[in-house]
Amino acid sequence: MELLKEVLERIKPSEEERALVNAVTQEILKIAEEEIGKKDLEVTPRLVGSIAKDTYLSGDHDVDLFLAFPLEVPLEELRKIGLELGKAIGKRLESYEIAYAEHPYVRAFYKGFDVDIVPCYNVKSWREVKTAVDRSLLHTEWVVKHLDGRNDEVRLLKKFLKGINAYGSEVYVRGFSGYLTELLIIKYGSFMNLLENVEFLGKGKIIDLEGWLKKEPEIAYKTVEREGESPLIVIDPVDPRRNVASSLSWEKFGVFYFKAKEFVEKPGIGFFFPSKAKAGDYKALLKKKGTNLVTLLFPKPELVDDVLLPQLERSAKGFEKSLKREGFEVFDLNWGYTEKAFIMLEVDRVERPRVILKPGPEFLGERALDFYTKNQKVWIRGKRLYSEKEVKEGIVDVIEDLLTKNQVALGKNLREVIKNAEILINFVPPELEEEAYLFLSKEKWNIKG
């Protein structure tokens, strides 16, 4: 297909770019080897990830340098020495910082490349895996051995997924990981064959490239049983205990499903390189739809996206649940940040009827007959008359009351800032107007999970 050739020309690294990537990665490896030698350590520096597998996209130069320690090194020692070694390497690059995952690692920058320097164990099989990152060595080896020249097919799939906002296994994305894209191409042979078989992919659900269900049935079937609610179960070819697609959400799989169907029916460059959507007037859209927009605005905490965005999602879903309990229909949710963090809720109404108690006079007094005549519902408690009155209660008051009573499930780092949030009804500041329109429009080109 000519279209795919055109896409490849734009996303495949040129020979000059390849030469640069190879030269820089070799420099980084040489620095690592020198620092290992200085400390007289039995550590093997290994390149993993898309650069090592040659599945990276043009302009995407993330270097994953793993420092593989012998299995007999205690975990605490690996963490301590691994961090010291990573810092020593980072000091010889342009800049570095310490980042945290299962254990601390170094994130550095060198000649335009982001470099992750990660300590791990030098494992040879899944039975030796001690930390989550150890498998990366095995992943790289397995993909290099089985990809069989289909590197460009992986590139097409990665770019397609990026174009439809379904790429990335981070907790705030929950899309397709790079490793998952490689395994899908190995399974289906090509980008187009995968898209043409997306129906079978969804219904077949289980992919077992290494035959673990036969080789290690007890372990592999436990994985299948545990992951039964996932949209896909891709038993890791290097570890039968793991579903490679465990982080993939139904929403992101759904986006891929529909976009794949659309592309097969009518291919277009826009799937890979989407043009910026033209935002319209969100106020006119609200008027047309007859719904309402509630936006909570609050200062953005200094948290990394991996922490902040899941907590924003949890908080948005907390408001949805609490408001539904209070009688408001919540159609959809949105969250994120620009200068400030925000939560958007599209709701059916911003007022609800509420009955309040209306105390009257004692029934033997002069005003008792007047109160009795004017009110439809009247009762007596002791000597006093009572009635009830229907009033309109605004959603802002309801939200504030819920927050005061701690009746909304919020992200633990966001509780205080959200309690003091600014609550806007059918209005957003200028920097959120486009976001509000895209959220409310629900156009298919903007489908998101």
UniProtKB/TrEMBL annotation:
InterPro entries, from UniProt?
Answer: CAA_C, CCA-adding_arc, CCA_tRNA_nucleotrans_2, NT_2-5OAS_ClassI-CCAase, NT_sf, NuclTrfase_I-like_C, Polymerase_NTP_transf_dom, tRNA_NucTransf2
Provide the residue positions that the database annotates as binding Mg(2+): D62, D64, D116
Print the keywords alphabetically: ATP-binding, Magnesium, Metal-binding, Nucleotide-binding, Nucleotidyltransferase, RNA repair, RNA-binding, Transferase, tRNA processing
Q: Which top-level enzyme class is recorded in the Swiss-Prot or TrEMBL entry?
A: transferase
Q: Which GO terms describe its molecular function?
A: ATP binding; CCA tRNA nucleotidyltransferase activity; CCACCA tRNA nucleotidyltransferase activity; magnesium ion binding; tRNA binding
Report the EC number(s), separated by commas if there are several: 2.7.7.72
Polymerase nucleotidyl transferase domain location = 34-138
Q: What catalytic reaction does the record list?
A: a tRNA precursor + 2 CTP + ATP = a tRNA with a 3' CCA end + 3 diphosphate; a tRNA with a 3' CCA end + 2 CTP + ATP = a tRNA with a 3' CCACCA end + 3 diphosphate
Ranges for domain tRNA nucleotidyltransferase substrate binding come to 152-273
Q: Which SUPFAM superfamilies match?
A: Nucleotidyltransferase, PAP/Archaeal CCA-adding enzyme, C-terminal domain, PAP/OAS1 substrate-binding domain
- Entry binding sites for CTP: S50, K53, H139, K158, Y167
An example Gene Ontology biological process: RNA repair
* Positions that bind ATP: S50, K53, H139, K158, Y167
Q: Which domain of life is it from?
A: Archaea
> What positions does the domain CCA-adding enzyme C-terminal occupy?
289-424
* Entry cofactors: Mg(2+)
Question: What's this chain's function?
Answer: Catalyzes the addition and repair of the essential 3'-terminal CCA sequence in tRNAs without using a nucleic acid template. Adds these three nucleotides in the order of C, C, and A to the tRNA nucleotide-73, using CTP and ATP as substrates and producing inorganic pyrophosphate. tRNA 3'-terminal CCA addition is required both for tRNA processing and repair. Also involved in tRNA surveillance by mediating tandem CCA addition to generate a CCACCA at the 3' terminus of unstable tRNAs. While stable tRNAs receive only 3'-terminal CCA, unstable tRNAs are marked with CCACCA and rapidly degraded.
Assembly and partners?
Homodimer.
Family statement: Belongs to the tRNA nucleotidyltransferase/poly(A) polymerase family. Archaeal CCA-adding enzyme subfamily.
Miscellaneous information on this protein: A single active site specifically recognizes both ATP and CTP and is responsible for their addition.
This one is known as CCA-adding enzyme
